[in-house]
Design goal:
Blueprint: H1 8-18, E1 47-52, H2 69-72, E2 78-79, E3 83-87, E4 93-96, E5 105-108, E6 115-120, E7 126-129, E8 136-144, E9 150-157, E10 179-184, E11 192-199, E12 202-211, E13 218-224, E14 229-233, E15 236-241, E16 248-260, E17 268-278
Antiparallel strand pairs: 1-17, 2-3, 3-6, 4-5, 5-17, 6-16, 7-16, 8-13, 8-17, 9-10, 9-16, 10-11, 11-12, 13-14, 14-15
Length: 279
Amino acid sequence: MGNRRIGRKRIESALKKLNATTPDSTGSRSGLKGFDMPAFEIQPSKYYGIFDDFNTVSGVTDLAQDDDFLLAHAASGLCGATWDVTAGGTGPAVTLDNAEIGGAVLLKAGSDDDSTALMYAVNNPFVLDAANPRKIWWEARLKLSDVDASGFFVGLAGNGTDATVDTAILAGTPSLADGIGWQIVDGQAAVTFASITAVGDVETVVQSATSATDATYVLLQFYFDGSTAHFYINGELSHSSALTLPTDGTKICPHIEYIQQTGDDDTLHVDYVRACMER
């Protein structure tokens, strides 16, 4: 090749491809295929991003095994620099889970029907702005212990000051004011993963063809190209939509919510959250 230079675009393309892994649909390695997300960690002048592998409770220096998010910063209500954490019901839990390979956060809403556990990265806002569009990439790897008795939302959502008005995961009471992500509505008849986009309380929900399976990890992803959102499951494109996207400049933040339909101590595990946006 002589003195031929490798251009920046080629390097960026190679780095994106390195984020993808070989797909696997069985055991603890299921849901490991990635999609093309920029290596934002080494390009801070071009991209803003967040990555939490849930190996520590953010901001805690005196770490204990299976540390508790709810207790770590009970006085201030904030969990260090990243997550604002709240939960309802009897015996809720939002804890690190050392039993999961690679570490994970465990959300258990409690023993009351329709109780919730919520994590909200209030200091890490993203924006879909039609006047100045930025590309956004998002992914979260997760599993439900009982898909028939649970609901969840992962993605970007607004209204971080009121944990009761964030998502549409309670059947019959849609309440996502502004946001984009993946969900299963608590108590829905067909337990398939669905994308949701919302602006000003107007929602668009698209059911995928992929069913959820108990205790099986799945990688849920989306890519906003500046006008259209493309939704992926385990690195494969499921569908695209340009409807009811919050492109009015509203700030929306990383968000994880879990709801329990029965009192069986069902759980949601989130292995990691990773997202980035053009500056």
